[in-house]
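Notes for week 9. Today we move from apo structures to complexes. The key idea is that a small molecule is not decoration. When we ask for a structure prediction with adenosine-5'-triphosphate present, the ligand SMILES becomes part of the input, just like the chain. The input block below holds both the sequence and the ligand string. Read it once before you look at the output, and try to guess where the molecule might sit.
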Amino acid sequence: MTPMMRQYHEAKEACGDALLFFRMGDFYELFLDDAKVAAGILGLTLTSRDKDSANPTAMAGFPHHQLDQYLQKLIKAGYRAAVCEQVEDPKQAKGLVRREVTRVVSAGTLTDDGLLDPREPNYLAAVFAVTPKSKGKKSAATPAEIQVGIAWAELSSGRFEAGVFPKSRVEDELARISPAEVLYCEDDPQTHPDLTMPWSWTSRPGWSFALDASEKALCKQLAVKGLEGLGFEEGSAPAIRAAGGVLAYLQDTQRGSLDHFRTLMCHNRSPVLQIDAATRRSLEINRTMRTGSREGALLGVVDRAVTPGGSRMLADYLAAPLVAPDAIAYRADAVSELVGNHMLRADVRKILTDTYDLTRLLARIATGRTGPRDLRQIAVTLGGLPTLKARLTDRVSDCLVEIESRLHLCPELRTSLENALNDDCPLSAAEGNFVRPGFDSELDALRELAKGGKQWIAEYQQRQMDETGISNLKVGYNRVFGYFLEVSNAQKDKIPADFIRKQTLKNCERYITPELKEYEEKVLSADEKASTREQIIFADLRQMTHDHLAVLQEVATSIARVDVLAALAEVAAQHHWTRPRMADDSVVRIEGGRHPVLDVSMKQGEFVPNDCVLSPETGMIHLITGPNMAGKSTYIRQVALITLLGQVGSFVPAESAEIGIADRIFARVGASDELSRGQSTFMVEMVETARILNTATSRSLVILDEIGRGTSTYDGLSLAWAITEHLHEQIGCRTLFATHYHELAALQETLPRVANMSVAVKEWQDEVVFLHRIVSGSADKSYGIQVARLAGIPPQVNARAKEVLAQLEADHRDNLDRPTIAPPNGNREGDKYQLTLFGYADHPLIQQISNVDLDSMTPMEALQFLQKAKQGLAPSIQSPQHTS
Ligand SMILES: Nc1ncnc2c1ncn2[C@@H]1O[C@H](COP(=O)(O)OP(=O)(O)OP(=O)(O)O)[C@@H](O)[C@H]1O
């Protein structure tokens, strides 16, 4: 093995399962199996080293400037990559150039701008489960008893948070965080990866989650004595261990410092609106269901932020709306002030447009991956602060006042950076020539000398040409001889005696003179000294910026916050949204509510606004019937989205709104395809519904869309019926239930807090005209056949469907006696449950039972009656649909 291959294998061993990108001159090379994998994924040509040997080594490579693009491809394909750099100048190296793995890149540890979407956070998460000690209990712990610590961090910003959650909520929390990569403990069976989730899973050894070591490492990183002060009190061990797991992984994979991780936020300290993963998808908060893009989702409408940091914070705000009335009002007051003050809003947004992504710039400073251009961008951003601060002075809302107080101007740093750096700086310090003339006298002198020397050489060439009469005499340069005089063979006889011959080429000869050598010395060393001097200046500026890390991070957060508030104000002003009155109860009163996304995407005035009042007087459960395509789903989603926006602190698309703050929002909307997770559509629907029934509280808001349609009509209707009863009797939460089971309308007669609503339509010449208006009362038809025609079902199929429908309706009419369904609780006298679809009422057995006189029967006669009934009639009881 050559020394270089030995070096390669050492590096490969240190980076585990990551593919190794090995820097060789201007190329990155991959070897052996790595080369084969990379060739397949990256489309590189597979070649081999030592072709003539018995065992040639497979290799593939690419030019160094293409690193970003190949890293991105590899990470998208779910791989990790280690970058092994040459860490000394090959010119200075004695023997083999030293190489080191400088970083391991995985989906959760990206920092390079080229690899990240500036508008999206990129979290690395870790999960760690702790099962409670079974105090004499024989059965295994339930998912609600198992405590799971989840920690999440963003290397490109320094954000770090952790919390403890019951195992049953882990999937929902991960859906909220939406991490790029999740670390799990290889010996922990409770948190084994769910590979159907859209993030990559990385297994880590048990020791990296050890409690003591985690606590120590975190205290050291955050420079604190204990974690209690941050809110991690008793019972926080799972969170601390998960956070320790994240930190250990970052320390393992990043060779640079992690100085920008300065605090660990305790998630459990500030509760947020709980939204499970299915609801998040159904409501299309951050992404649309179909294409997974932010355009068409709620985020796409409200993200009017002008800075990338603002966009990322807005995504976080929408993912975790608030529940504390004070915290909501704090934000909403600021939004309100910015809506009311158009000039202030416009000015703030204009100033922010000229800033750079300070959060990510600071992360690069902390991790030691910064260059002159980053420092210049920090200077420009600081340059905008005095005007921003002045605009935010004397504000009314506490939140804007607080933001203003956190905009630290850092005047000395700004002056130094501005004075030192050229307007147009290179990405990397190695490129040189970024320090402004006049900033450093020593550098200026060296540059002058270098420049002057070159000029001297030009003059010297002219002088020699004049003195010798050799018109094509040239001064040239190469690395072996340095500067030389080149004379063509034809002019050889004019060479003066003091020229010293150095090299003979085919058509010319090369000479040096003592005078030329003397100047060469000055020029070359001045150039070199100038570039060394520039590196020293850069290192000083970087250190000075690093010393301001804490205050600058506060500035970065403040910029993002004011951007988010101004963005929410902008969208509110542009689309005529109003500030909702947030109440500490379970009532919703929306007048003229609109769907935030459809309202914006449709032509102005096309969207039909609707009211929604959910209260004990007007009904807490609204059953909404109406034709297909009438707007039922849109309506119920719009109520959920308005509630969510209100709890974010935003204005809402309505003429007026009063919103009782919800603790959870549940949405069971549409069938999501979960076949990849081994569950049928109906099963998924039931799992999600079960979760609602088991976890909703009286303060929750529940949105149900066509529950039960994935099974037979009777099963579906019965389930929908029972679910509505349960929500009414046991939970009492605000519920909007869109359904095509018109039979459910009968529930209004027996359940006092159920109200029937429908979407108005007009029939005109066998056509349905959708009015999209929600009115009181239930609908009697679904107009499915008319809607199918609109969708392009062939006319003959449509006509036949009409015939079948007419027959079914006629048959059904003969059996439409409304039967009495026993109430769920048998002793509730007088409750009449009517169900029209079931044909029980005219069943002979029912008639016989009602005719029989139990008082005159002996117990034996009663038993015989039952026996006979069972033998003769049971099959038709079990299949009531055949009775007609
Ligand atoms: N309030 C409204 N104003 C204007 N157009 C609307 C309104 N509500 C819905 N629409 C339009 O009607 C379409 C269908 O709406 P939606 O999906 O809510 O109907 P639906 O009643 O739930 O239908 P289905 O029962 O077939 O699921 C929407 O895509 C939108 O274009």
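The pocket of adenosine-5'-triphosphate is lined by residues 598, 607-608, 626, 628-634, 738, 772 (CB under 6 Å).
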